[in-house]
Each structure stands twice: as C-alpha cells, then as structure tokens.
Amino acid sequence: MTLIAGRDLKKTYHLAEQEVAALRGVTLTIAPGEYVAIAGPSGCGKSTLLQLLGGIDTPTSGSVELDGTRIDTLGDRALTELRLRKIGFVFQRFHLLPVLSASENVELPMAEAGMPARVRRARAQELLEYVGLGARARHRATQLSGGEMQRVAIARALANRPSLILADEPTGELDAATGAEILALFRRLNAEGTTLVVVTHDDRLAAEAGRVVRMLDGRIVA
Amino acid sequence: MIPLLLVLALAPPPPQSADSAVAAGTARPVIDIAVERRLAASLGLQVGDTVRIGSAPDSLSTVARVAAVYEPPADPATVLRRDYRVRLHLPDLAALLGTPDRVDRLGLVLQPGVAADSVVRRLNAAAFGYRAYGSREIASGSSQTFRVISRFHRAIAVISVAASAIFLLCIMLLKVEERRLDAAVLRFIGIRRRTIFLALLLEAVIVAVVGSMAGALFAFVASAATNAYYQHFFETRLIFSMVTPGIVRFGVGLSLLLGIGAGALAAARLVRTRPLVLWGRG
Amino acid sequence: MDLRWSFRNLRRHPLRTVLSIAGIAVASAMLCDMIMLSGGLETSFARLMLLRGYQIRVTPQGTLPLDSEATMPGITMLARAIAADPDVVAVAPVVATSLYGSPTPHSALLTLFGYGIDPANQGLYQLESGADLLPGDSLGVLLGAPAARLMGAAVGDTIALVSQLDPQVAGAAAERRLVVRGMVRWLYDHEGQPSVGTIVPVMQALGGIRQADRASVLMVKARDGADVPAVVARLRGAHPGVEVSGVDDLVRHFRERMVYFRQLALILGTLSLGIATLLIGTLLAITVNERLPEIATLRALGVSRRSVIRDVLIEGAALTMAGGVIGVVLGLGTARVLDRILTSFPGLPAAFSFFVPRPGALAAGLAATLTAGVLAGLYPAWLAARAPIAATLRAEAT
Question: In which band, very low, low, confident or very high, does the pLDDT at B1 lie, cut at 50, 70 and 90?
Fold first, then answer.
C-alpha cells in the first residue's frame, strides 16, 4: 500500500539566463507508517523533491499521488486544503510567527481548519506537552531556544492530525544535543504510526530512518 | 458715483429719431453709456445699440446708446459677486437717480510733494458728514477680505506641512527599515556605523532633492491650471495663483529639510540598533 | 486564521505603527474639515436664514437681501398684497440704512447702521434685556451691544439719531431723539456692527424722500406645512417687479458666491484621501514584503490565500480606523481654528459658520477613509497571497 508516490518527477528552474534541472526524473513511493530519510549533498534536489511531495511546488513533469489522488494537477485551493489537513511541514528554520506564543503558533492550523477556540487551545496544550514544552505554552516564539522552537514547529505540524509529516533539515540549525532531542521525538512519532519523510545532511537522523534514499544531481542513486 | 441699482433692458430704437425728439423738446435726451464686456456679451450688445435704463423695473424711462464696450480692471473684491456694470456720465446718473449734486465719494489728486496724511488730517478736522482717507488706508481696509483668505491658506499650509512631516518620517523609516538585514550583514563584516549612516543619508538626500524638484514642478503646473480654470470660470484676467521664487525657495528648502531630517533620524535609529537585533536574533 | 496575528503585527514595530496612525489621522482630519466646509457653508447659511422662521425674502429685482442700497417702492401695498396670500402668516418689512448717532447734543457723530422694523412681525433680532418696541412706538429705539458701547447708552437713556447730513451748513436734515427701550442681538449683523432699530416709519422719516414708503427687504413667513416653493412661485407671478427668493434660492446664490471654498474643499478632501491611501499602501507593501517568509510558511501550513488577504486587509483597516477616529477628533479641533479665521471676513454675519459638524457627513468621511485604507491594502495583500511558496522559502534559506 502506498501513502504518497512521486513518479518520474522532473523540476527545472529558470534562473536569469540559465536553466537548472533540480530533479531529473525521480520516482519514489512511501508506504503508511514509513520513516524515510532523503540524503545527499547540497544542491542534489532533496528539498525540491520534498516540496513537490508536499504540494508546495509543482513538477515540470511527472506526477505526485497522495492516498491514490493525483495532487500535482490540483488547484491552489485544493492543495492548500491538503496541506492543512493531511500534511504537516517542519522547516529547517522553524518559521514560527514571532508575535505569537508557542501555544498560538500551534493553534494556527487548527484555527484555519475552523476548530472552536476552546478545543484547539486544549489540543495545543496537549501537543506542547507531547513535545515536552507544556510549561512554555505562553512564551513568545522569540523567547524560546532553537531546540524549543523546532519542537513547537513539530507540534504545529501535528495540529490537524496529518497522515504525513515532511521535514526539511529539521536539525540543520541545532546543536548535537538538541538535534538528538528532535531525533527522539521523530522516533516516537513514527513509533505511534506517523509517516515521516525527512530531508537531512545529518547521518544520525538518516541512521534513525527505516529507509534512506540517497540523491545525487537530481536523481536517486540509492 | 457708484450706482445703487440700475435696471437695463434692450430697447428698440424709439419711433422718431431721438435727436429730433430732443430738438422738439418732447423727449428725454438719449444718453451715452459704456457697457462692461461681459454684460455686452450676455445681452448681445454692440456699440451703437440702444437700451432703456432706469432705477426701477417699472420706470425704464431713459434711452441710452451704447457708446463703448469696456473691459473693467480685474478687481478681486468684486470677482466673486459677478455683478454687471455700466458707466454713465455723472450728471446723467444723478438725473436718473433723482439725486442732483450728490456723490458717494470724491477722489483727490494732490500737488506734487504734498503729503497725503497731512491733507487727510486737515480735512477730517473740519469734516461734517464726510470723512477723508488716504488711498493706502482704503486699500488696507478693502484688502481685509484677502488677508483673511491668506490667513486661511496659511493655516491650511501649516496643516499640510505637519502632515508632510509625519508622512516623510514614516516613509523614510519604512524605507530605511527595509534595509535592516543589509545593515546587519554590513555590521557583521566590519563596516562602520558611520559609513552605513552616511550611505543611508545620501539615499535620503537624493530622494529629498528629486522629490523637491518634482514638487516644485508640480506646483507650477497646478498654479497654471488653477489660473486657467478660474480665469475661465470668472471671465477675468485676475491672477489667482502665483508661484514666486520665494515660494519655491521656501517649499524646496522645507521639503529638503524635512526629507533629509527624516532620513537622518531613521538612519541614526537603524545604526544604533545592535546587528543581531537587526538580524532578528537578538 | 487567527486575527491575533494581524493585530500583533501592528505592535511589532510600534514607532512605525504610531507614525502611520498619526499620518492617517492628519489626512483624516483634513478630510473631515473639508467635509465640514463643503456642506457646512450652506447648512449654516440656511440655518441663518431660518433663524426666526421666515422662509421667503422679497427684495428689489436683481438683488439679494441687504446686498445693495436698493429699495422697493410702494411697500405698504406690496406687504398687504403678499399678506393676502392664504399660505402667508406674516410679512416683516425691513428698512436698512446708514445714519449717525449722537450720545449727547454736542458730541461727535458716530456712524451707525439703522433697521426699520415692524415689532409685531420681525425676523431680525432677539431681545436680550429691557423691553421690545411696541407697534407704533415712534419714540423708542433698540440697540445692539456694539451700538450701545459706542454710544455709551443703556436701557432708558435718550439718544439722538441724525441723517441727511449737509456739510455746507454742518447740519442734519433729519434728527430724532429716541429712548432706548431694550438691548437686542441683531441676528444678521457682523461682529461689532453698531446697529440700532426703530419702527419702520421712523427709519423711513430719517431716510427722507428717498425712503418714503420704501423698504430694503420684506421677510415673509409661510404657515407650517405650506409648500414654500409653491408660495414663492405664486408670489413671483403676482409681483414681477420684485425679486422673490425662498431659502433654497438664496442658498443657491450663496453657493455660487462661495464656489471657491466648495472647490477647495473638494480638492483638499480628495488629496487627503489620496495621501492616506498612499501611506497605507506603502506601509502594507513594505511590511508584507518583510513578512513574505512568514506568509509563505503559513501558506505551506495550509492557510488559504483568502485568509492571508483578509489578514493583511485587517491590518490596513485597523490602522485606518485608529487614524480615522483620531482624525475626526483632531479635525473638529482644527475646524474651530479655521472657522475663527474665516468668520473674521468683514461684513459676515457673526452667527455664520464655515465649518459645521454634521454627524452623518463625518461618518461618511470616516467610512471613505476606511474604504480607502482597505483598498490601499488590496494590492499588497494580493502580492502576499500570490507569492510562490517554494521560491520564497528557498530565497529565505539562502
């Protein structure tokens, strides 16, 4: 059974006077509950592949299916809905909203999904406790450490109970110890059944994954 | 004599020639009048036409011949009223109004070298039923309306300058803060605060200079448009708006001062902020 | 999406927000002032005309009330004929002339302005102290405060009114000694105008032959509920030799005379709206540009374009609303200053105002400012919503 599949994905960027082929025909299928790491040197197309799988970007050619439905041909509204309810994103630079508290950042996707305020506040607290930050719920994002911010970002990604978490270099901005905390969290998530696809340079993170996909020059090489 | 009110109507030529009627002593003599251009245009009058004229609508007893069509001097005191005016010989008007030997005012021309003030004083000392004024005093009194308008315009200008100062400060602040990350990186790599400040100030100077020049140009265009519009609207040759070198100097000077001042304030604020804070990590 | 993001973003850069609100407040104040000026002139004028309920004025043909020294002849018969109209309840003749006063027999003459009135039907003054003139009181006079000050007279004093001066004999052809019955406020006088009032025959006598059975204006009051324009049309038809004007006609003439102020109000009001729009648009464009990575993140998380647009517009609307409300208060204050300047026009009735606050109009002005603020935010909001998510995140990562 396949949760998400990318077939013969190609992506070309037009920059000034040159064309850059970020992906040169990548096919990848991921089953529910898998923990997949995508590794490779800088510029190999890892983040581009992740963005195509997550519906953030559209391929130049090829297709992406989520739960059997092609998503690369969906309009913006449908893709947005997909990202809101079925996919959670974790970014290298956290991208929390600095003017909101940790709890409010986690509540954001739930508010967008129309969850009543009381319900989403309770769930946000629950998620923050899950990531070990229950006591920091009211702190502003700027008052948190890097590791804490990434854990809030993970809690936010889990807000609407997505079937898939996509993480782009989640430990890229963190020190080893903090990175290890994130690894532990991902381990726990996957153990509880969440499908994870993680782009990483970090060998430890890659080692945690059930499957490692190696990329080079826009292709999967292993 | 200033006419109180005259009623004027187009009249056909009298049935017998006016001159022969006068010679026969059977009719009032035809008088000559000069008609203002606007009135002539609105009634379709030309030199030689005759009109009936009187001091009441039901007593247009006097026939007048249009001897001239004249353009009155542009008088800002009367332009808004848009009254129509005609000129008569003084005895004719006095006869028409039934007020012989009566005028509203006398204008005096003094001998060269005679001081008007002393003449005014002498006349007023012996005056009964009249008062003497120097022309300057009259002009000052009658220009009171324009002084009020000038004060009003000045008040509007003060509000506009205040608004402009706030806008400039706001815009400059925004523009400078847009360069926050650039400024942070420059500070990280060792560029001095002073260098960054001067660079931002130079940008503010250029924007202020170009903006001031554009503003001055716009003022000339707007002034020309204002004059063209109101001269057409009021059918006059009065100048309603004038952009003088002094006004340009004041406007450009003030806008340069505000623009550069606002830019300097914003730049100073930026360079005083710690680079990490600018970067968003402090 | 959570509206807290919109409002908290405004607090992110407090100085920027405060300056923007201040800028909008000043523009909004100017807009309010121009709204008060444009409609205020006519409102104030109409109010002035209707102070005592007289809706119609009859004046010499081609003139406006007290606009010239012209007078109408045969005023007794004319007033009677007008009063015979079934919709007319009162006709108040007014004789206006300049004359001189003398506090004591040998003191210097003071220039005064005289009103001849019918005390039973008058629309020119309000009694402030003392007693009103009685019909037929040929020995009484009413003084306004400036005239009383000039003459040094009070209720009960006797003053001399003279006219038709002859400089050659240094005398006056007409003189009356009158007792001050009361102090009044002349409703249509300019500040400091030294006016006195007697019954019509007395003022006509002071005016000599030139004023016999003549008046400067007839003020006509129609009954409550009467169709005033119809009454005006009837009177015009019946009396073609005079000018009959309803308040609407007078307001129209007045509007033409004040065209400069109306046009100025329109131009400055439009400019103010334009400037507020420019300021909001620039502010939002810059702040949206700064927050593009945040916005891209939100879009990546599933926040819809509509939510992003809405939140940017809310920011613009919040700024505009705050500035607009402050602007209304500021505008009311500056209007008083500007009104004080303009009401010092020579010859303008003291009861007249240029800037008249009308709640409906001010609310409309505030709504216009708010609309401008929202519209100004449309383009930046659209840019924010259309920003490509991947490219923006990529750019932010480099």
Answer: very low
Average pLDDT along chain C: 88
Which residues of C fall within a CB distance of 8 Å from A92? 397
Whole-number Å distance between alpha carbons of C96 and C77: 19
Please report which residue ranges of B178-192 form alpha helices under DSSP H.
Answer: 180-188
Nearest CB among A80, A92, A95 relative to C294 is that of A95
**C323 shares contact with chain B (CB less than 8 Å):** no
Shortest Cα distance from B73 to chain C (angstroms)? 20
Give yes or no for a contact between C116 and C93, defined as CB atoms under 8 angstroms apart. Answer: yes
Q: For strand C195-199 and strand C110-117, is the pairing parallel, antiparallel, or unpaired?
A: parallel
Chains that touch C (3 or more CB pairs under 8 A): A, B
Please give the C-alpha separations between residue A97 and each of A156, C123, C331, C361, in angstroms, as whole numbers: 11, 69, 38, 41
Give the gap in angstroms from C-alpha C51 to the nearest C-alpha of chain B: 25
Range of weakest confidence among A68-72, A175-179, B274-278, C228-232? B274-278
> pLDDT at residue C133 above 90?
yes
Of C23, C286, C342, the CB nearest to B148: C342
The answer to whether residue B146 scores a pLDDT higher than 70 is yes
- Contact (CB<8Å) C1/A85: no
For B229, list phi and psi in degrees, rounded to 5.
Answer: -65, -50
Contact C301 A83 (CB under 8 A): yes
Average pLDDT score over chain B? 82
Q: What is chain A's mean pLDDT, rounded?
A: 90
Residues 6+ apart with CB under 8 A from C290: B177, B178
A216 close to C (CB below 8 A): no
CA angle A61, A64, A70 (to 5 degrees): 110
**Are the beta carbons of B56 and C73 separated by less than 8 Å?**
yes
pLDDT at A214 over 80: yes
Residue of B nearest to C162 (CA): B129
Using left for φ > 0, alpha for ψ between -120 and 50, and beta otherwise, residue A33 falls in left
Q: Do C346 and B5 touch (CB under 8 A)?
A: no
Contact B5 C69 (CB under 8 A): yes
**Cα separation of A108 and A114, whole Å?**
10
State the ipTM, two decimals: 0.82
**Locate tokens 């991947």: which residue?**
C390
B219 to chain C, minimum CA–CA distance in Å?
Answer: 14
pLDDT digits (tens, 9 = 90+) for C335-376: 999 999 988 888 788 888 889 888 988 898 899 999 988 898
pTM exceeding 0.90: no
pLDDT at B6: 58
**CA-to-CA distance for C70 and C66, rounded, in angstroms?**
8
Banded model confidence at residue C168, pLDDT cuts 50, 70, 90? confident
| CB within 8 Å: C303 and A108 | yes
Q: Answer yes or no: is pLDDT of C140 > 90.
A: yes
Handedness of CA B173, B175, B178, B182 (dihedral sign): negative
Which residues 36-95 in chain C show a CB within 8 A of chain B?
Answer: 60-63, 68-70, 73
Q: Is C13 touching A (CB cutoff 8 A)?
A: no
pLDDT in tens, A116-174: 999 999 999 999 999 999 999 999 988 899 889 999 999 999 999 999 999 999 988 88
Say if the Cβ atoms of B163 and C167 lie within 8 Å. no
User: How far is residue B64's CA from residue B49's CA, in Å, rounded to a whole number?
Assistant: 8
pLDDT category of residue B240 using cuts at 50, 70 and 90: confident
DSSP classification of residue A34: -
- Cα angle A34, A40, A43; round to 5: 125
Residue type, C380: P
In B, which residues are within 8 Å of C342 by CB distance?
Answer: 148, 152
